[in-house]
Design a protein that fits this description.
Keywords: G-protein coupled receptor, Membrane, Receptor, Transducer, Transmembrane, Transmembrane helix. InterPro entries: GPCR1_Superfamily_Member (IPR052921), GPCR_Rhodpsn (IPR000276), GPCR_Rhodpsn_7TM (IPR017452), Olfact_rcpt (IPR000725). It comes from Seriola lalandi dorsalis. By secondary structure, this protein is mostly helical. It has one domain: Rhopdopsin 7-helix transmembrane proteins (Up-down Bundle). The protein is 73% helix and 4% strand. It is built from nine helices and three strands. The longest helix is centred in the middle third of the chain and has 34 residues. The relative contact order is 0.13.
Amino acid sequence: MENNTYPPYFNLTMFVNIGSYRYPTFVLCFLLYAFIISANVVIILVIAQEKTLHEPMYIFIMCLSINSLYGSAGFFFRFLRDLLSDTHLIPRSACFTQIYVIYTYASYELTILGIMAYDRYVAVCQPLHYHNKITSKMVSKLIALAGIYPAFSVAVCVYLASILPLCGNKIPKLFCANWPVVKLSCVPTVLNNLIGMLVSTSTVFLPLAFVLYTYVRIFLVCRKRSLEFKSKVIQSC
């Protein structure tokens, strides 16, 4: 019963047999991954070493690059291996680890974009208060908030999914995802659905709504200003 309801492996069923084409596909995907790594490492090193770039906006950009390395590692390591494999079984622990990494990556991306939007909003709409509001201490707090909340909220979702008794092990994707695992449950998933909605709202929809709100406010401010001011704001944003 233990093995039936808590399968030790999951089967990623979206992979198809492409025969000898798997090798050029692997090379292309590997080159894409290498480009992602090299581009983001260059951005991180340039910002870290150039003191003139030690400004809030560039610090946030560096955070995005670090997050890109984190998220791409969570996907590509397993994906490249599966491209060359005849079977696409992933251990239970590895599957839930991948879910956590990919979901926190996506959440970090949106929360960081949210604090970047706040930075631009203060810079454009409240320029006289910018240096008083966006201090080094505030930047540290914003980055900590953008990282800590998704880490804990996603962890709750993954934990709730990991304790569900499952009536199958097939995931119709190229990677492990939370909702397909929850749908395999043999028991009602009301709590999982509720927590999932709350986490999605707070880490996806609220940051996106805030970004939209700040850019609407910036647009309204720019509408009344000179063409030169508009071009500077557009370049900055």
